[in-house]
Structures are given as structure tokens and as C-alpha cells.
Amino acid sequence: MKIDFANLQLQYQTYKEKIDSNIQAILNKSNYILGEEVQILEKELQNFTGAKYAITCSSGTDALLLALMAIDIEPDDEVITTPFTWISTGEMIALLKAKPVFVDIEPDTYNINANLIEKAITKKTKAIMPVSLYGQPVDIDAIQAIANKHNLKVIIDGAQSFGSTYNGKTDSNLGDISTTSFFPSKPLGCYGDGGAVFTNNDEYANKIKLLRVHGQNKRYHHRYIGIGGRMDTIQAAVLLAKIPNFRKELIDRQRVADQYNSELSNTFQTPVIRLNRTSAWAQYTLRVNNRDNIIAKLKEQGIPTSVFYPIPLHLQECFQYLNYKQGDFPISEGASKEAVSLPMNPFLIDSQINFIVSSVKLANPI
Ligand SMILES: Cc1ncc(COP(=O)(O)O)c(C=O)c1O
User: Fold this and answer.
1) Which atom of ligand 1 is nearest the CA belonging to 88?
2) Is residue 177 a contact partner of residue 67, using CB atoms and an 8 Å limit?
3) What is the pLDDT of residue 1?
4) Which of 166, 206, 305, 336 could form a disulfide bond with 137, CB atoms 3.0-4.6 angstroms apart?
């Protein structure tokens, strides 16, 4: 049986007619950069998320950079974040010559542990940047309370969590600024690089709109040092073709997760989603203590797996200058050795899920 991890090919075949015609329309008009489709997409994203502003950009990484620049992160500022994430989260803080300050995660949700944040705050702390890992929103009430008490900004790295909710609000509508990625394999993905920044703050929104076009406020007049961070119109056209199906896709991801849970939760540490939240299920991640063995056995059956993430950020070569060491964040380090993600996409059907589940059980005899 052929199992695909994200199944982008089946996704394309499913929406082919609309995607092809949307792309063809752009080719016919040649409005490749910030065309009207980008504005239409931004309206759709505002409606979907409930955020006052949705500003599209060139990637989830650039969305983080724009958010950090909008709140004026400067050299020597400190930004608190998680070490158990994709490199971009810490990297964009460091790119601005600010200091990423890591705080360990919760063992069950893999998101930053809000109880540990206050200890990491210093006079230099400017912001907290939690990550809604694997698709589940962070503990925003606790994080926001700490931020309010210490006068810090909150930027949510929602690259993996577009479409998730916290007390009924979308993850994109939490914090001072929230970001997402439309990388192809993300819950809502385009067919290249893309991202977005969300905020309810007029000042940040106006600044981000300028920052993404080199800080330009009118042609050849540059108010800020910015970046070339626009979204291509073709990517907007792809997203516009996919958005009408996105709510159904979220329901299907939940269906797959429910089936995995009901079959695997007796044997494995399956994902824990807090009662007041829904996940966008970017990943379905198990915790296992014989990971290499399970991955190899599943591979023999033609079942792909992924490891997010095998090396936490504090142990990355590029962050050696921060002087963290092995053992500083034991929960993240444990997860980096034991987390393994199973195929997750809305197109998985019962027979495939059953095959994956029985293969996982066989690969891990009790
Ligand atoms: C947590 C997290 N942050 C940031 C990013 C960066 O997004 P992009 O690949 O669109 O630049 C990703 C993408 O993998 C991510 O998973």
C-alpha cells in the first residue's frame, strides 16, 4: 500500500481545475507581484481568522522577521522562546542581533511551559515568542498575563497552527502579532514559499505593510530599512483556490487524528490537546523510546515518518555562542530523542489509517 506523508500530489489533483484556472488568470494578466489576488486573499484571511489585519508575505520565516521588526526588536534585546522548534524561530531573533532566551516545553503538548517563563525575564527582555507546535495553540492566557505584568510583547509563531483555535478564537488572532507559514506541507499551503502576519494593532499593521516592501511609503521613498518580503500573486492564487476547502480539510485532519488516537493511545504517548483548544494537526506526533527501530520498520512497509525536531535549538552549532549546554532543557532534549510524526493529511482513508496503525503496533511489540 502506498502511503504519502503530506500527499501534495493528491491535493493538487483534487483541486486541479480551480488551481490551474487561477494560475492561468495570473499568467494572462502578468500581475506577478502583489496583484489584486493578494488583496483578495488578505480579505479572506481576515474573515477566516477574525484578525483585523492579515498581511501576506514571502514565507513564515519572513513573517517572524517582520513581526520582530514591527515591535522594534534591537541588538541586545532578549526574546524568550522555545528550543523545541524549527530553526526560523530562534534564527530571526538572532538575525536582528537580539538574544534568543530559551525556556523548556511542557512534556505533553511540546509547547513552551508558561510556568518557567518568568524566571527567564531580565531587564533586557522585550518579547515572548511561543510556537504553536504541531498545530496546537500555546497557553496564551498564562503567557499574556506574564507579558502584561512585565510589559512585554507577545508574538505567536503559528507557522504550524493556521486554523487552530483557543477558546474559539483562531490562533492567528492571539497575542500582539501572530504569524503563519504557507509552506506547501503546512495545513494551508501554497505551491512555493509564502506566509502571513496577523494583528489587531493599526500601528504594527501599517509598519509591517511598509517593511515588506523595503520600508517604502511611496515610490522611491523609504521610511524604514525593510525587506523584499512580498507574496507572489501566483501563490495567492493557489491559496484562493484552496481556502474554500480548508474547513473541511481541518475536519478531516481531526478525523485522522481521532482514529490514530483511538488505536494507539493504549500503547503510546499520543498527542494531548488541551480542552479549550483545537489543533490544526500539522503533525501527528507519538513519543516512543525505540524511535530508530520503529522508523526503520515502518519504512520497510512503505510508511514514511518524520522527526520534528532531532536537535533542539540550544544545541545547534549556530547557537553555541549563547553558551547553553546539554541538560539545560531536559524536556526538549527528551522529546528530540523520542518524537516521531506519522503521515498526516486530510486525504488519508480508513484502509490506509488501519494499515499505518497496525504497522506501528507491530513495529513496537509490547
Ligand atoms: C515553527 C515554525 N516556524 C517558522 C517556520 C518557517 O516557515 P517557512 O518555511 O514558511 O519560512 C516553520 C516552517 O517550517 C515552522 O515550522
Assistant:
1) 4
2) yes
3) 84
4) 166
